[in-house]
Design brief:
Low-confidence stretches: none
Strand order of the largest sheet: 1-2-3-4-5-6-7-8
CATH class: Alpha Beta
Oligomer: single chain
Structural class: alpha/beta
Number of domains: 1
Order of helices and strands: EHEHEHEHHEHHEHEHEH
Bound molecules: 2-phosphoglycolic acid
Number of strands: 8
CATH architecture: Alpha-Beta Barrel
Distance between the termini: 15 Å
Mean pLDDT: 97
Strand content: 15-25%
CATH superfamily: Aldolase class I
Length: 249
């Protein structure tokens, strides 16, 4: 049986409370009556978690954070812990997004520590990986991504506490996507690498992310070993995000 499809929205550093509340209400309304079996999760900026959590209460729409510190509490100005996210109503957190790897110099080791923190707090870690354009051009995409997976996954990772999101850096926010064959090749390679690291690797959800939109969601979600999508820009518009969720069947 293939794992349950997951459509996750990464709101990044966007929206204020009023807009976030309206978006959350529209998505929650959709999920109340959705016939698709796919799960939907939104990851708003931290100051919006309370507002969004209030709108999602009692609906099947899930909530996630965008990052967490490796420690549970302490002198880390500006950071949030996985326990705080859990306390705010989150069930998920993305770690190792390429924007954090680039903007905050996050290494595989740090991403692994953050994923461990997520597991400790009872959150599902959405561990993000992806090659740069130069790495793809040099024919190194599969090596880079499989080595990020090996370096970023805690030993205790299971299909129940971990999701992997493959997001080619050059496809994020650019409107460009890899070919369907390239996505299929990468997802097969990720599945194979996970087989060396985990006993239940077949059940791990592998998301594709990078310029997913209503017009390409169908074909991307139909690729073998693609078990969902991590969506940035198109997750900020209720209509688009709902269309992507519907494409998940
Ligand atoms: P995008 O972002 O859908 O805007 O390309 C995806 C992501 O960074 O998660």
């Amino acid at each position: 049986m293939s794992p349950r499809t997951l459509i996750a929205g990464n709101w990044k550093m966007n929206l204020l409370r009023g807009e976030a509340g309206l978006l959350a209400v529209a998505l929650a309304d959709h999920m109340r009556s959705a016939t698709s079996g796919a799960e939907m999760v939104v990851c708003p900026p931290t100051p919006l978690l309370d507002t969004v959590a209030a709108k999602l209460a009692g609906t099947p729409l899930g909530l996630g954070g965008q990052d967490c510190h490796a420690e549970s509490a302490g002198a880390h100005t500006g950071d949030v812990s996985a326990e705080m996210l859990r306390d705010a109503g989150c069930g998920f957190v993305t770690v190792g997004h390429s924007e954090r790897r680039a903007d905050h110099d996050e290494s595989d080791g740090l991403v692994r520590a953050k994923a461990e923190a997520a597991h400790r707090a009872g959150l599902i870690a959405i561990v993000c990986v992806g090659e740069t354009e130069a790495e793809r051009d040099a024919g190194r995409a599969v090596d880079v991504v499989t080595s990020q997976i090996a370096g970023s996954l805690p030993e205790a990772s299971t299909a129940a506490n971990t999701v992997i999101a493959y997001e080619p850096v050059w496809a994020i926010g650019t409107g460009r996507t890899p070919t369907l064959d390239d996505i299929a090749e990468m997802h097969a390679a990720m599945r194979a690498r996970l087989g060396d690291l985990m006993t239940d690797s077949d059940a791990v959800r592998l998301l594709y992310g990078g310029s997913v939109k209503p017009s390409n969601a169908d074909e991307i979600l139909a690729i073998a070993n693609v078990n969902g999508a991590l969506v940035g820009g198109a997750s900020l518009k209720a209509e688009d995000f709902i269309a992507i969720h519907r494409a998940a069947g």
